[in-house]
Amino acid sequence: MKGAHILLIGAALLAAMAPAPTNWDWALPAGIALPSVPADNPMSAAKVAMGRRLFHDADLSIDGTMSCATCHSQRHGFADDNRTRPGVDGSPGRRNVPGLVNIAWATPLTWADPRLTTLEAQMLVPVLGDHPVEMGMKGKEAEIARRLSADACYGKMFIAAFPESRGRIDMANIARAVAAFERTMISFDTPFDKAGRGGAPLSAQAQRGAKIFFGEAGCAACHSGVNFTDYRFHRLAASIDPGPNEVSGRPDDLNLFRTPGLRNVALTAPYLHDGSAATLADALRAHGVKAVKIGQVTDIIAFLETLTDASFVADRRYAYPEAACPS
Amino acid sequence: MASKTLLLAVLLTAISASTATMAQAPATPACTTPVTLPAELSGWSPRSPLAAASSLAGLASATIVPGAAIDAALQPTPAMQYLMRPEKPGGSVSYGGLFAFTVPTAGTYRVALDSGAWLDVLADGKPVTSSAHGHGPDCSGIRKMVDFPLAAGPHVLQIAANGKPSLVVLVTRLP
């Protein structure tokens, strides 16, 4: 990301992270800590509803063809089935589209930019960024405001979501609303989760895979915690992509990439920062899991498939709204 | 892997409403010589102009003949009254359109576009689930192709989220 204007807007959004307000029902299972929420962007139903609409609105791209949901496809765990996605102008993408789930807890957020620590700041990158061009709106913030202002429904929704600014339609509030919606993309209802809560046990193969995953294969050294990521940067192999070195200039940051979470991973192929692993087996091989025998690879994959939350990817609360204006 | 493949196949098939994900163009190759298209795409050119309908009422005058490509003039998205809401309807500055076409004999038919626009094929007002999708041959100008198993009879092609008011469209039967 090169656009200084993105950083400026992002910096304005970088409020101190605070404990989540108690008036929002996160509906979390026991043992899951509340996510942090920026103090200047408390959760509200009106904000989430508008963020949902904005997430699916292609008017956030220069020619009206690309929304957040174009690349973050629900059926693919809010990832994309291409190695990388060309931008709205056809320019090639740089990195694989990550899935979106439980990102309320994620920080930093992307493959290789440790500066992006809030959803509010990250949301601006695909819209306004030019490295690469994704939605192509760099310098067109006023055009976005014009388009949304022309829609009477959005006018009402912005007022309901941001009464403190009398419904101001600008990039900061757009980012806040989308971030609020994204914080509701929560999943703790996979077969793995259910088994952990005393539900149906995993298959014998998946159990063998879990034992290998958490044991001899060492996967859980990085794919740790409830979201199967340590949110830290690691180097798998040399790459033409400099990774965080691109923004830090530090030699030690060369070719590092942030550990991706593994929830819904069976739906988010292809894998790795460049999408170069077409299958989970390819991704495992790319990790150099040499000690794992072929049969164990299928066992690990059977375990990874238990991290798919079928109800999450079919949940209409995250889909394109049936009606533009909520009644 | 077999179970994983099956799981993915089932999920993708079950969730897909009617068409495949928006196919993406790879890096543009250097095109120095005309490409020879396979027989099923030979109707890609020459083309005839045709204005898209914006609603059911205008469909009769927006009829595509399978095998013959058109240079479509699309409608602004805010003017569109789709028969079924597209999964990717496009923003207010994008373009869409409706076209009618009649399938003479049942078979697999391919819709080819020169853009990555969203498309649905409807039969009796219901979406037909696509059977395959991909890119066109390099240097052909065909960016997106989606295949549908179609029965004989009338169908509607819905186009949504196109970035330009013009679009090349070919509906063609596969061998």
Keywords for this entry:
heterodimer; A: 327 residues; mainly alpha; two-stranded antiparallel sheet; 13 helices; 4 strands; 34% helix; 3% strand; B: 175 residues; mainly beta; 6-stranded mixed beta sheet; disordered N terminus
Descriptive overview:
The complex is a heterodimer of chains A (327) and B (175). Chain A starts with a helix and ends in a 14-residue tail after the last helix. Chain A has 13 helices and 4 strands. Chain A is mainly alpha-helical and 327 residues long. Chain A has a two-stranded antiparallel ribbon. In chain A, strands 3-4 form a two-stranded antiparallel sheet. Chain B is globular and about 40 Å long. In chain B, a hairpin with a 2-residue loop joins strand 7 and strand 8. The N terminus of chain B is likely disordered. Chain B is 8% helix and 37% strand. Chain B is mostly beta strands and 175 residues long. Chains A and B meet through helix 12 of A and helix 1 of B.
Determine the structural class of chain B based on helices, strands and strand pairing: mainly beta
> What is the average per-residue confidence, as pLDDT of chain A, rounded to a whole number?
91
Helical amount of chain B:
under 10%
Number of strands of chain B: 12
Strand content of chain B: 35-45%
Write down the overall geometry of chain B.
Answer: globular
Largest sheet of chain A: 2 strands, antiparallel
Q: What amount of the residues of chain A lies in strands?
A: under 5%
Q: Which chain pair has the greatest contact?
A: A-B, 40 and 30 residues
| Shape descriptor of chain A | globular
Largest sheet of chain B: 6 strands, mixed
